[in-house]
Amino acid sequence: MSEKTITIDHRNIGSAHPCFIIAELSANHAGSKEVALNTVRAAKDAGADAIKLQTYRADTITLDVDAADFVIKQNTLWDGRKLYDLYEEAFLPWEWHEDIFQLARELGLICFSSPFDHSAVDFLENLNAPAYKIASFEITDIPLIRKVASCGKPVIISTGIADEQDIELAVQTCRDAGNDQIALLKCTSSYPAPIEEANLVMIPDLARRFNVVSGLSDHTLGHTVPMVSVALGGAIIEKHFILDKSLGGPDAAFSLDIPEFTAMVKMVREAEAALGKVNYDLTDKARKSREFSRSLYVAADVKAGDIITIENVRSVRPGFGMHPKHLEEVLGKRFTADCPKGTRMNWELVEDPS
Q1: Tens of pLDDT along 117-140?
Q2: Pick from 261, 252, 207: which is nearest to 13 by CA?
Q3: CB neighbour list of residue 103: distance below 8 Å, 6 or more residues apart
Q4: 0.90 exceeded by pTM
Q5: Would the pLDDT of 267 be above 90?
Q6: Could you say which of 3.40.50.1580, 3.40.50.720, 1.10.3720.10, 3.20.20.70 is the CATH number of the domain covering 6-56+91-275?
Q7: Domain covering 284-351, topology
Q8: What is the C-alpha end-to-end distance of the chain, expressed in Å?
């Protein structure tokens, strides 16, 4: 199976390319457009490749009712709150989107969003969004996925609440719409997520099983999980990003601030550099270091005609003499010349006994 790649705004994304690092703005704007714009600037400075938004209104994602079904009771950070009230606090005003997209483009950041209903897709199309993200809890919204896929842009899908059948249906829905630019992100839908539930071995399995680009949408604290995901072939890392955790808000507790995000990017790039590529050719430095390998040297003063033995020829460091593989070949033969201890062995010093 060939290496899968998707292309977002001329950026090739796949395991053969540098990891695509997304800063998730989410609710980390504190109700301030200026905070939102400053977060975009900070994401660029912290090393992100992209800034991702969420495009919804409270009434496009849930209903404003007091029934028990609509009150959160899942042992989360938000237990006891109505869904409507949470989303009313968290949503990013739609009238801010254009300025955020414009600033991101000026900074060289890719900007895209997670739409949560059909009207959000239409709105983002008018902003020329270069890709779409399907959030974990929307993976079962097949009409939304079909609408997104039909735009012909790359579709990144989080799999946090999905079983295999959910993923198969979402991927097939994209392909049935003529869109094979698909990425699947391993995601643990806990906020924050325990590191022992990261299950990162799913990243290469998602790529193989569904023939897609794969990566990570991460809610763990710290940098370990993103760094390891790269070693497993993760081509995308998405992390919630906040200017300062003192801003508070629904997502602050599991978001990375500027120093944390900057450190994560550095560790990811170092991990990529450490992974390197399959190559058995020696670098100039490695070739030079072969001087410290073993080779055959005269280990005692000898005269012409002396028999070569394990006492007077040894495999030692450094590596300027004959290859050690020839030791047994020269034993029992004679020296052709007088040699002081420390002479490099070479074939001109060896002759068969007559």
Answers
A1: 999 999 999 999 999 999 999 999
A2: 207
A3: 37, 40, 41
A4: no
A5: yes
A6: 3.20.20.70
A7: Type Iii Antifreeze Protein Isoform Hplc 12 (3.90.1210)
A8: 62
